[in-house]
Each structure stands twice: as C-alpha cells, then as structure tokens.
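Section 4.2 – Deliverable D4.2 (structural model, holo form)

The reporting period included a commitment to supply a predicted holo structure for the target in complex with S-adenosylmethionine. Inputs used:
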Amino acid sequence: MIAIDYEAARKRMVKGQIAARGITSPRVLDAFLEVPRHLFVPPNQRLFAYQDGPLPIGLGQTISQPYIVAYMTAQLQLQGDEILLEIGTGSGYQAAILGTLAREVHTIERHPRLASAAAQVLKDLGYSNITIHEGDGTHGLPEHAPYQGIMVTAAAPQVPQPLLDQLDEGGRLVIPVGGRGGQLLQLYQRVEGEIIREDLTPVAFVPLIGDHGWS
Ligand code: SAM
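Output (structure tokens):
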C-alpha cells in the first residue's frame, strides 16, 4: 500500500492550477491550502482529488475543477465577515472553502443523500459556521437573507429572481447561466439598489433543477 502525501499534492494544486492561472489573493490561496479536498470525494476518487478537473461524487453529480472553485470564490471578494448562500452543496468542498473565508455559510442541496454525506464530512472536520439545508435552492433561503455573497454551483437557464432579491446592497452573486451543453459564468452585483451584470467566462456545469431552474 503506497502512502499518498495529500498535503504536497494540495500545494502543487494551489501553485500549478490556481496561482499560476492568476488567482493572487493570499486569503483565497490559503483556504485552498487548508481544506483537504480528498476527504470530500468518494474513496475511489481520492487518488485524483488534486488533479486538474472535475470528479464524480455520485447521483450523476460532480465536484468542480479546483481552478473553477477558486475562480468563483475569488469573484465574491470575501473579507471575512459575510453571510453567504451557496446553491448546490454537492460534496461540501466549495462550502468548506467559503466557510474558511466568511463568517457564516448556508448551503442548499436537492439530493438528500449528498446533503447528509457533505454534512458528515463538514462535521468531522469541525466546520461550525456552515449549515446544510435540503431542498430546491432556486427559491434561496429568505430566513437568513440578505446575503453579502451568493454562489450557484449548477447551471441555470436564467438567474433565479429570488436569489437577486436576497442579495444585500454591495453583495455579489456568481452563477453559470446558459444551455445544458455549456454556460457563461455571470456576476451580479447590487449597487445603490440596482442590479448590474458582468459576463465572465465559459463554463460547463450540471443543471440547476427547480422551480426557477430547469424542470
Ligand atoms: N459545490 C459542489 C461541491 O463543492 O462539490 C458542487 C456542486 S455540483 C456541480 C451541483 C450540485 O447542485 C449537485 O449536487 C446538484 O444536486 C445540486 N443542485 C441542482 N439543482 C439544485 C437545486 N435546485 N437546489 C439545490 N441543489 C441543486
């Protein structure tokens, strides 16, 4: 049995895949050095956890490529005091990154099996500022709104209006929008009450299924 040096693999991932592609925020890079990505993937995927791509996590869902997780995280420009909402908990890895960088994270997952697996990993690792909610995240989570940052990690046909409504003044929302074959990552900001949109980069995500997503 070969022992794998996951910490060394993580350092290589941060340097070669994330920093090398232009993510320079020391806080963001430190979060990726800290969170043990291999513990968020199924045991048969651990060997590949620090490779430059997405991985299957069961039920036809994926954990995104590390660089995409980092790129989307950087778009939120977190300072440490934010309350965040994530739609699409999946493995819980992105939530752990966000929980390392912000005060409080609420994350919603529609598959109960993925939600409980992610909750177990996050509990085992001692994250106490992340709450997982089961259900259709396209409605957001009004009871904890407004959010200073919202991240959607599944592809929507358009940005769900309830999420825009729950975005705080100065808040930032990042979401892949487009068809099932490929999407454009979009950034929405609320500035003096108005919503401003910026188109970022092409991406490919699994679909956001729900009342304000795909049917
Ligand atoms: N952020 C995840 C991670 O770090 O592993 C990866 C998310 S995966 C690309 C997309 C997830 O969104 C899937 O787990 C899927 O079940 C979930 N999803 C799709 N539609 C949803 C909805 N309406 N509400 C909540 N979760 C949804």
